[in-house]
Amino acid sequence: MKLLFLAFVALPGLAAVGAAQELRLFSIGTGGTGATYYPLGGTIANAISNPPGSRPCDEGGSCGVEGLIAVAQSSKGSVDNVQGIVSGRFDSGFSQSDVAYWAWSGTGLFDGEQPLDTLRVIAALYPEHIQLIARADAGISGIAGLEGKRVSLDEKGSGSYANASQILKFYGLTEGDLEPFYLKTAPAAEAIIAGQIDAFFITAGYPTNAIIELAERADITLVPIAGADADRIVEAFPFYSRDTVPAGTYPGIGATRTLAVGAQWVTDERADPELIHAITRVLWNDKSRALLDVGHAKGAEVTLESAFDGVAIPLHPGAERFYREIGAID
Fold it and tell me: Signal peptide location in the record (predicted)?
């Protein structure tokens, strides 16, 4: 089938899995079009879809959930997605592990707010890295060098913005110490080229397409997030881990130490358990595995073996039933 990347109106709740050929829609809130969530969401949407009239799986057709059309919708990112899931704007969505936990528990970024305690996990997907990209001539060699610079922190309401804000705080900086901008990845990359900003943050799985394209058009560097302050972040927030973006990930850029969190696919506990069971089963079939391997560089890291990595909120009952059936959990 042709992958539907355009925004689609999400149904607040999908009916239970019904008769063959019944058309059902299932939205996946992702992120900005220049980051990782959006294209990977498109790959997963393609894998789990099986529209009415499709050829049978054993005849070379779709092996997705019968009658389902899944759609990857662009969004502001993790915070927007978890809020949209609970409000019914999205049927599911991608979220950083830290954002999902804070939203579910009403802590961290959601301290003082009503917990979004109906959030449930379908699967952990892959690690995503906090990447700070700077113009090579901006003289930024570390977080401290951002003071007084023009820096995009991503859109407010995104996981990238949340991470950027936390990192600045641990390095003794506030937004007032910078000239802050709030751009998604693609506009931020264009602003770097135009000389309108000096640096921008993005939390995404590498390689990030927009950064690859930017590195081919401008002289940039990847700024390390390391040292004692980074160590304090890892100690304070167990969702963070130390990691490295390998040399050659982006043209002309060497290995760079940074921090990482996990990407998870989440939904609401009110989502139909039969549908979520079917989606989870299809996510891990051989046809989906093949699509993930070729659909995006991060797709190969989406594995059943890591489906529970960093999961700190409950599994959806439909997903949990599938994992128990195959012996992945007791």
Answer: 1-15
Q: In 94-207, where does DSSP find H-type helix?
A: 97-105, 159-170, 185-193
- Give span(s): CATH 3.40.190.10, the chain: 24-127+263-325, 129-262
C-alpha to C-alpha distance for 27 and 191, rounded to whole angstroms: 31
Cα gap 228→61, rounded to integer Å: 53
pTM comes to 0.77
- Which tens digit of pLDDT belongs to each residue from 211-235? 999 999 999 999 999 999 889 888 8
- What secondary structure, in 3-state letters, does 291-328 show? HHHHHCHHHHHCCHHHCCCCCCCCECHHHHHHHHHCCC
DSSP 9: P
Contact predicate 151/178, CB 8 Å: yes
Residue 147 DSSP SS3:
coil
Residue type, 106: G
Q: Hey, what CATH class is 24-127+263-325 in?
A: alpha beta
Give 201's Cβ-side CA count (13 Å radius).
32
